[in-house]
Amino acid sequence: MIDPVKRRPSGQHHGDLRSVLERAALELVAEKGPHGFSLNEASRRAGVSVAAPYKHFADRGALLAALAETGYREQRERFAAAVDAADSPADQLAAFAAAYVYFAAQEPALFDITFYAGLDKPRHPELAEAGEALLETLMPVARALAPDEDAAFDLLLRIAAAAHGQAVFLRQGLFGVGGDALAETADRAARSAQAIVAGLGG
Fold first, then answer.
1. What is the pTM of this model?
2. Which of 1.10.10.60, 3.60.140.10, 2.30.42.10, 1.10.357.10 is the CATH number of 64-201?
3. What string of DSSP letters covers the chain?
4. 38, 62, 118, 141: which has the highest count of C-beta atoms within 10 A?
């Protein structure tokens, strides 16, 4: 998780300009969405000159791409931990679904950047690499339940789609608010994953 920006007077030197700008942009995404801010706003929020970001980022898209890469890494760490804590492949996929919901609720800005920023993927090949690394964290579990590679990918996609939908519904308030709603939605996503796995033999 990226810590909130500690603002400094404009023009003051930052030890890590890149990280400061990323934190500022993440705050702005949380407030306005991934399309609702400019690079100049991120500069002002970070307390640096409007020229400073160009030392690290060609444009706003490059800054968002860096945050999207962070989002993929965060998901990979969370999902790997969830999978490692479960025993059977079915339980591991259920744990992944629950972790998906928790990520969307606890890191909404990173979630929105990952899925809704509309980034130019060919321009940022590092995103494809990060996404592939995330996928390969989960595919071995799906392979243990599916007859072939395509079926394993389809299984993982169906579970992720169900968890994604439930996470979005939660954020829209359809399942209530607060910690209880989050825990109940995560449990619901886990049950959906188990039902999808149970249906493989049908």
1. 0.87
2. 1.10.357.10
3. -PPPP----TT---TTHHHHHHHHHHHHHHHH-TTS--HHHHHHHHTS-TTGGGGT-SSHHHHHHHHHHHHHHHHHHHHHHHHHT--SHHHHHHHHHHHHHHHHHH-HHHHHHHHHS---GGG-HHHHHHHHHHHHHHHHHHHTTSSSHHHHHHHHHHHHHHHHHHHHHHHTTTT-SSHHHHHHHHHHHHHHHHHHHHGGG-
4. 141
